[in-house]
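task queued by scheduler; priority normal; single chain, no ligands, no partner chains; default sampling; output format set to structure tokens
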Amino acid sequence: MRPAHLALAVLVAAVWGVNFTVIEVGLGHFPPLLFSALRFLAAAVPAVFFVGRPKVAWKWILGVGLVLGVAKFGMLFIGMDAGMPAGLSSLVLQIQAVFTALIAFAVLGERPTRLRALGMAVALGGVALAAVDEGTAGPLGAFALVIGAAACWGVSNVLTCKASPPDSLNFMVWVSTVPVLPLLALSLLTEGPSRDLDALRGLDWQGVGIILYVAWITTVFGFGAWGWLLRRHPASTVAPFSLLVPVFGMSAATLFLGESVSPLRWGAAALLVGGVALTSLAPAKTRTKAPVTAAEPDDAPHDDHREKVAP
């Protein structure tokens, strides 16, 4: 990989890692579901008018939009609003790689090797350790919501793999059009129109900047650059850079939000990142004897989303 491409991969990981801190700040401006809806609205418009028509069937766009946009990001934002720390969220969300591998086994026939199974066990051990740490410091319900968000991400990864979008940016922009109305409806029902209106009336330049960052920088730029790298380098070369996301996420939360990282949490981070590395990079077996072009999940299009830890 050229130095410029290497720098771009690190930059994307940094952008996605810092995004968790930006979300934490944004939740002080907006109710979580309204915040998520505005994020997708800004990501879709005006980009949807410039990326061309969808290049995959609408069933895949709708499916990924609902699972990834509504379920995954809805639970993530609510979980963080309920007290899940930004740094820990950036770490725990990595367990989506394990969910992806398990769902891919059930749906796509990608049977895990012993090395990949070991990686999943190690990563789950890291999540258990993080849960013990969070249980002494914060609400376990919020922790469970982020785990649920990771599971939904795993489902969306497999849906994306089935869709096989030829253009990741085009796909992500069209996917971003789907969650806007459902999230707005859920926000009105659960967060209330008065709270939503108060947030919109109180919109300031910081709030605008937060929306633009999570929409244009992390979504449009982040996914576009990641897809560009995957089209020019083997996925096994690009994928490991996603492991830098929780490093940047925890560092940014410590630096800008003053979040402390206990020794137990550092241990959880080591187990989770190490386990995800084994799960993501170890080859998968298939149920059939015929050659499979995506022998490793990292070769499949869904990895554009699996590696993008930033919400």
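post-processing summary
- The longest helix spans residues 205-232.
- Residues 287-310 have pLDDT under 50 and may be disordered.
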